[in-house]
Amino acid sequence: MVPERASEIENTVRAVLRDVLGLSADRVAAFHDETALFGAVPELDSMAVAGVLTELEDRLGIMIEDDDIDGETLETFGSLTRFAIGKAVV
Q1: Degrees (nearest 5) of the Cα angle 57, 84, 78?
Q2: How far apart are CA 27 and CA 14, in angstroms?
Q3: Is residue 34 over pLDDT 80?
Q4: CA dist., res. 52 & res. 46, Å (int)
Q5: DSSP character for 36?
Q6: Are 2 and 41 in contact (CB under 8 A)?
Q7: How many domains would you assign to the chain?
Q8: Do the beta carbons of residue 85 and residue 7 sit within 8 Å?
Q9: Phi-psi category of 81—alpha, beta or left, where left has phi over 0 and alpha has psi -120 to 50?
Q10: Which among 10, 17, 53, 90 is placed 20 to 30 Å from 76, CA to CA?
Q11: CA–CA gap between residue 55 and residue 16 (Å, rounded)
Q12: In percent, how much of the chain has pLDDT > 90?
């Protein structure tokens, strides 16, 4: 994958988390691969997950099926970003 595209997708994931969850730009900018998300970020509850996934679909032009998502998808910032990259380049 072209590193620029991966960087663009990572930035999109950050923007979606910021916009959908109402997180500050500084907080989201500090996220790294191992930053825990689901269960650790109170704003990311089960209802917000749907909003995050829908917004990723819209902004990245991807389709996310229910069976694409498992317990690890939203476990960390890195796992969510890798998921988005994988969907965007297929």
Answers
A1: 140
A2: 10
A3: yes
A4: 10
A5: B
A6: no
A7: 1
A8: no
A9: alpha
A10: 90
A11: 7
A12: 90
**pLDDT per residue over 48-59, tens digit each?**
999 999 999 999
| Amino acid at the residue 78 | G
What is the domain-level CATH number for residue 47? 1.10.1200.10
Vertex 23: Cα angle to 46 and 16 (nearest 5): 70
Helix (H), strand (E) counts: the chain: 4, 0
Residue numbers of the domain that contains 56: 3-89
- Tell me: pLDDT of 42 over 60: yes
What's the pTM? 0.94
pLDDT at 32: 97
Give yes or no for a contact between 49 and 35, defined as CB atoms under 8 angstroms apart. no
